[in-house]
Amino acid sequence: MSRGMEKTADFEELRPLLFSIAYRILGSVTEAEDAVQETWLRYEASPTPPASAKAFLSAVVTRISINVLRSARVRREEYVGPWFPEPLLADPYQDPERSAELADSVSMAALLLLERLTPLERAAFVLREVFGFGFPEIASAVNRSEAACRQLVVRARRHMSEGRRRFEADRREREELATRFFGALTEGHVDELRELLSADVQLVADSGGKAPQWARGFFGADEVSRVLGALLPPFVRIGGVVEPHQVNGQPGAIFRDPDGKVMNTWTLDILDGRIQTIRTVSNPDKLGHVGPVADAWAVLRDTQQARRDGN
């Protein structure tokens, strides 16, 4: 096998890991994919083979992601409304020995906590706590001493633990609750919806000012159940589809218009047998990787008309 073919084989084997590192640092599918592609170009151009392809490529994708994140932070400060990560339908990297850490670290709640960290803290935390890299490898990736990297991880752990709420680990129970929720949602069963929601539930949306926005969001079981019970049945009547799907390792759904185009994605945070937070991503710029994007304004108009006709 030629050296070029060996490089390609090594890179393709490690591509899932590289994407997963980049996504957790950036919170963006498209930016993570770009970071991985740039990593390949640098690897392809490197004149001498590294001692470890995994160490080399992980370091390169981490450095690229840190630089991208620094510039992205400025854009996020000017973002219209709440900012959420781009929805991830499936994590390409799997490691049975770290499955719990991997699933937890990709949730919307965890990624939003990671936003509290500096780019260096975030990178060090992801490499150490999620993927189990040693401090010599982390030091090489972020161009800091091992002692400095240990401090980065300590600070990151403290920030993460201060804001973390532990979500239920029993996947089957979460899936059963999500199935009941989406069933009641499409049928407009307000009382059943209310029973599945925590008293202080939040329904919040990321539209980026480019899709219908739910003002400041909706809060409390009564308000959230009433709003959902009013809007979802007419959406289904016009041919809209609620497609249950894992999103960011959590129970969620993809909402599609009558033509099958993507309206938005939902994720459910579940604690103590109740839904605590519903996060929706409707910014079309964040949905292109999920599929063709719908005209959300047109669907909203049709839904509102169907609601008026139903009344």
UniProtKB/TrEMBL annotation:
<feature type="domain" description="RNA polymerase sigma factor 70 region 4 type 2">
    <location>
        <begin position="109"/>
        <end position="160"/>
    </location>
</feature>
<dbReference type="InterPro" id="IPR013249">
    <property type="entry name" value="RNA_pol_sigma70_r4_t2"/>
</dbReference>
<dbReference type="GO" id="GO:0003677">
    <property type="term" value="F:DNA binding"/>
</dbReference>
<dbReference type="GO" id="GO:0000428">
    <property type="term" value="C:DNA-directed RNA polymerase complex"/>
</dbReference>
<feature type="domain" description="RNA polymerase sigma-70 region 2">
    <location>
        <begin position="11"/>
        <end position="73"/>
    </location>
</feature>
<dbReference type="InterPro" id="IPR036388">
    <property type="entry name" value="WH-like_DNA-bd_sf"/>
</dbReference>
<dbReference type="InterPro" id="IPR052704">
    <property type="entry name" value="ECF_Sigma-70_Domain"/>
</dbReference>
<dbReference type="Pfam" id="PF04542">
    <property type="entry name" value="Sigma70_r2"/>
</dbReference>
<comment type="similarity">
    <text>Belongs to the sigma-70 factor family. ECF subfamily.</text>
</comment>
<keyword id="KW-0731">Sigma factor</keyword>
<keyword id="KW-0804">Transcription</keyword>
<dbReference type="InterPro" id="IPR032710">
    <property type="entry name" value="NTF2-like_dom_sf"/>
</dbReference>
<dbReference type="GO" id="GO:0006352">
    <property type="term" value="P:DNA-templated transcription initiation"/>
</dbReference>
<dbReference type="InterPro" id="IPR014303">
    <property type="entry name" value="RNA_pol_sigma-70_ECF"/>
</dbReference>
<dbReference type="InterPro" id="IPR013325">
    <property type="entry name" value="RNA_pol_sigma_r2"/>
</dbReference>
<dbReference type="InterPro" id="IPR013324">
    <property type="entry name" value="RNA_pol_sigma_r3/r4-like"/>
</dbReference>
<dbReference type="InterPro" id="IPR014284">
    <property type="entry name" value="RNA_pol_sigma-70_dom"/>
</dbReference>
<dbReference type="GO" id="GO:0016987">
    <property type="term" value="F:sigma factor activity"/>
</dbReference>
<keyword id="KW-0240">DNA-directed RNA polymerase</keyword>
<comment type="subunit">
    <text>Interacts transiently with the RNA polymerase catalytic core formed by RpoA, RpoB, RpoC and RpoZ (2 alpha, 1 beta, 1 beta' and 1 omega subunit) to form the RNA polymerase holoenzyme that can initiate transcription.</text>
</comment>
<dbReference type="InterPro" id="IPR007627">
    <property type="entry name" value="RNA_pol_sigma70_r2"/>
</dbReference>
<protein>
    <submittedName>
        <fullName>DNA-directed RNA polymerase sigma-70 factor</fullName>
    </submittedName>
</protein>
<dbReference type="Pfam" id="PF08281">
    <property type="entry name" value="Sigma70_r4_2"/>
</dbReference>
<keyword id="KW-0805">Transcription regulation</keyword>
